[in-house]
Amino acid sequence: MRSTELPKTALGHIRVLDLTRVLAGPWCAQNLADLGAEVIKVERPGSGDDTRSWGPPYLKDQDGQATSEAAYYLTANRGKLAITVDIATPEGQQIIRDLAAKSDVVLENYKVGQLKKYGLDYESLKQIKPDLVYCSITGFGQDGPYAHRAGYDFIVQGMGGFMSLTGERDDLPGGGPQKAGVAIADLMTGMYASIAVLAALNHRERTGEGQYIDMALLDVQVAMLANMNMNFLTTGQSPKRWGNAHANIVPYQTFATADGHIIVAAGNDSQYRKFVTIGGKPELADDERFATNPARVRHRDILVPVLADMVRTKTKQEWITALEEAGVPCGPINQLHEVFDDPQVKARNMEINMPHPAAGEVKLVASPMRLSETPVQYQNPPPMLGQHTAQTLASVLGYSEQQITALSGQGII
């Protein structure tokens, strides 16, 4: 644990050794960093985290020229110290062991068994740090017939059932399975891993025991289907895709306006009546085919095209203003420039700026965690490759300048 004086944070006493790359592991590590942990990100010399090159777009420097930092990398690496170590070398492995001995948590997302050959697996490291919390993140977990497969978010979204529920109905234009717009299996695995690490740290604080955490993308993807899982388990019937519509409520879906799209969620007959009255079609509330929700569900294929034509007669903002005033649940489908211009998003300070060594300043998305007594601390911007190698080896491990220079000359760091 760290003994230096720190701001009041939830995890200011914790050091995390982050051996992960891409998204699930780095997302977990960034959460821990936001909560005050010292996170040391270990990368390959010369190339680093794969996502550093996942562009364009790339962060621009103060002269407007592209840097080597892809926007994707900036997503999940705020708050960390970055060092480069070649763990394929005996010297690099010793550096990792020395850092693990002075850390509270190790995060890794290598293939099953890959770190064991370097002596950096949990069983090896707990010999030198018995109370270590060690979290492995893989596609399919440490056991089972798929354990040695590489795990990719897109594939897991399909295998785990998410894409069977997402996308337009098969009988409509554009029907078919659809992945999410962001890597939800990765992101949710990072979130579950964050919770698991905090639980393990709490257990260690009470008992002195470290432990091993086995996180799998497929496990998480299956678990997060929530009510859809239970719909299947209670009936034996696989749920169908409904696109932006609802299986049991009409209208509860998206509509195209004159200049964009809105969501209308009319959960009862009164709200439906207000909706069609605002649209100049009050007779649609008196028609026996549409007067009640069960009737609307039965006749959705007749009603929805009529509603769609009605909604196209007004702009997005005209609909939002009128429906909100009438108490009909609704909302816009915003593009990201509209999201970050939204007064509520602005009031919650969801866009932050941090100083950056190459760009001068970098715009980032704030953490949504709001703690009254131990608030999130934005300690460092996403670091440049190897930015803190010398500093970390000197301050944490006590390496001399001569040792650091020699290791650098050999390409080990």
From TrEMBL:
InterPro entries per record: CoA-transferase_III_domain, CoA-Trfase_fam_III, CoA-Trfase_III_dom3_sf, CoA-Trfase_III_dom_1_sf
Keyword Plastid: no
Gene3D superfamilies linked to this entry: Crotonobetainyl-coa:carnitine coa-transferase, domain 1, formyl-coa transferase, domain 3
Keywords, sorted A to Z: Transferase
SUPFAM superfamilies for this protein: CoA-transferase family III (CaiB/BaiF)
One Pfam family here: CoA_transf_3
Superkingdom as given in the UniProt entry: Bacteria
Record protein name field: Formyl-CoA transferase
Organism: Undibacterium squillarum
